[in-house]
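W.,

You were right to be curious about this one. When I first looked at the sequence I had no strong expectations either way, so I just let the prediction run and decided to look at it fresh. Below is the sequence, 280 residues in total, followed by the output.
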Amino acid sequence: MRCGCLPPLPRPATERNASFPVDLGLSGKKALVCAASKGLGRGCAEALAREGVEVTIVARTEAAVQQAAEDIGAMAGRTVRWVACDITTGEGRGKALAACPQPDILVNNAGGPPPGDFRDWDRDAWLRAIDANMLTPIDLIKATVDGMIARKFGRIVNITSSAVKAPIDILGLSNGARSGLTGFVAGLARKVARHNVTINNLLPGPFDTDRLRTNIELRAKTAGKPVAELRQAQMDANPSARFGTPAEFGIACAFLCSAHAGYIVGQNILIDGGGYPGTF
């Protein structure tokens, strides 16, 4: 059974009415949102566009990113620009920054590296993971942060992973690369905060995205169990008894980008339904 055959979950209130009751102070700001044709990146782009932000979205597949831009634009009542490129390459970053050269908001996002056993990863595998999930966001921050400082407003949000807080053994490539980015951000965020430029990380747990559905399908195939059974078991294991939605993730991102969030600096904010069991 494929996930598409499963009945949909009830939508949380944040998805049914995903607008803020207060002005976030973002109207007219410019945002560059990476990996935004679907999933968490798209949730962020939708939330920002709804708040009056001039959004440029980036993804690899031209048809998908163009359609996403049209859909988000129709929803928000504004034009959403799009760029089809691989943001993990220098050429791709050049195209993205040419389309949105002076963003006030940067949402860094890239697909995570594959799971596996560290014994099977060679040097090239590690370099690909570090390039995509550490060096690419750092390069984009380097290209945009000085403009933000000059304008006295900037919001940078890095979408990382709950595995930064609670490492997952089969996600060693992600654990390592994203933790490197986290350490870098911890230092830089405190240097630029005095200029009203904030850098924070959002750490998603299980969200109902293509990546999660694919992982469940692979686990089901390996275990010889129905997809629906494993999906339900994973939801039941979470204190919230469900998966998160891209819409509610996007709203959290939009608030971090808002004029009201200038005192939130260098934080790693878990959005995981309470899955992380620690006190700190």
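Here's what jumped out at me. The first strand starts at residue 30 and ends at 33. And, maybe more interesting for your project: DSSP finds nine helices and seven strands in the chain.

Coffee later to discuss?

I.
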